[in-house]
Specification:
- The protein contains four helices and five strands.
- The longest helix is centred in the C-terminal third of the chain and has 15 residues, at about 95-110.
- It has helices at about 10-25, 30-45, 95-110, 125-130; strands spanning about 1-5, 50-55, 60-70, 75-85, 115.
- The chain is α+β, with helices and mostly antiparallel strands.
- The chain has one domain: Aminopeptidase (3-Layer(aba) Sandwich), CATH 3.40.630.30.
- The termini are far apart.
Length: about 150
Amino acid sequence: MTIRPATPADLPALCDLLAQLFAQEAEFRPDRAAQQRGLAAILADPGLGALLVAVEDGRVVAMVNLLYTVSTALGARVALLEDMVVDAGARGAGIGSALLEHAIAHARASGCRRITLLTDDHNVAAQRFYARHGFARSPMRPLRRAL
């Protein structure tokens, strides 16, 4: 397995992975055209974020998406881990852990001082996974407003 930055040629595989992710999330639904637009925007402007993929036997089997912003509290760049998914057929082999550790190192090397992520309340397995990698619950509560 290798981990590398995503390329435009990876877009179909990334959309397939996001379809798996959004099919299990309570708040989102797969929308291939929307996902392709979002992914293409990130690939076109590295200042927005980074898309990393795990490749096994020539096939993209996992992805992670980091988006960048600036924290006024820290006075520094921070990252939002927007999406992370391992193909259902490739889970349990340590790919997710390797990809997440690579993403953390990438964020640190990019000058980020914090990574924030959201998981569904009911996704206890994901919460345990992230906790094993040093993520902790925040007293902050996310609120959203669709525009």
